[in-house]
Amino acid sequence: MTAHASPLDFADSPLSRAFAQPLFLGLFLPVQAGGWSASALPRGTTWTYDYNRALTLKAEALGFELVFALAEWLGKGGYGGDIRYHDESLDAFITQAALAEATSRILLVSTLHVLYGPWHPLHLAKFGATLDHISGGRWGLNLVTGHRHREHRRFGQAPIEHDQRYRQADEFIRIVETLWQAHDNLDFHGDYYRLEEAYVSVKPRYGRPVLVNATGSSAGIDFAARHSDIVFTTSPGSAEIEDALAKLPDHLQRIKAAARSHGRQVRTLINPLVICRDSDAEAWEYHAAITAAGDPGALAGAAREASDAHAWRGHLPEQKYVGGNIQLVGSPETVVRDIIRLKEAGIDGLQLAFYDFAPELDYFGERVLPLLYQAGLRR
């Protein structure tokens, strides 16, 4: 199978417009109970569709380029603890399909475990092409292989060895890309999938939908370098900004060099949890309150979901009460200073999260976004 057209081959594609920004912006939707913070400090954040729809419309109004939603398959009670962390959650694939009708400009990225259960490349090729048609080329796929052993077992499957997952995912997505652009029936007999006379009659508007991969391992980086437009990365250090900035440049250079070795370019995306107040002192006071109300039972539950993921390994337990790949804490000026440093380290985009999403997204739009324009990071 040969290389296929990318949305970047079309100057008017939503992805091309997003990448025209010096720093593209996304919102990491809280489609799961507790959002991204295992803390009991009171807030209005909720997993409901109406709440996430309102956040998405606000992000679109602010000029953000994309919104993400996660996918998890947990047992009753989610991760547990007093707050029953992630007990309730929406499906990312269905949520983004609904948001396609509610929005007009913003990219909508669904996280999907393509190796779980009965998923077949022909299913995804048809479903994805349909969402591309409905959204006007604004739907994207964050393809994940499933790093939690218990999630595989919930589908009646034995866990798949780490690097083998990426070999299987490579065959999966190559088939999907071929179906998206093929003009004839496809016969394919591979190591993991077989198709006979397979065809998808609705073709994506810009060659194919946007492809994203969240990874930190060698096998994952190689997969992303061959297929993805955006690599969703974590800090190879802790969530603390100075530690992250010390380790990110080499990590990001490794990702981009891997893409160049395949004759491609990728953009890097990271997920900051932003705590911004009028002063640094107020922001850190709020950070301390979130941490003090942290639910150790929720972290213990997360630890029981055995994982072989290479990302997050440098993150300290107490940092997970607040959440985020990294944490940006301070006044608007301090937050923008640290965003500039992330850009200088090689980060191309931010997938923002907040503790109390609705009011804090409003505050970000009012106080932080104008400073990003002034700094030349937004046009």
Automatic annotation (TrEMBL):
It comes from the Bacteria. Residues 26-348 form the Luciferase-like domain. Keywords: Flavoprotein, FMN, Monooxygenase, Oxidoreductase. Coiled coil: none annotated. PANTHER family: ALKANESULFONATE MONOOXYGENASE, ALKANESULFONATE MONOOXYGENASE-RELATED. Belongs to the SsuD family. This is LLM class flavin-dependent oxidoreductase. It comes from Pseudomonas flavocrustae. The lineage of its organism: Bacteria, Pseudomonadati, Pseudomonadota, Gammaproteobacteria, Pseudomonadales.
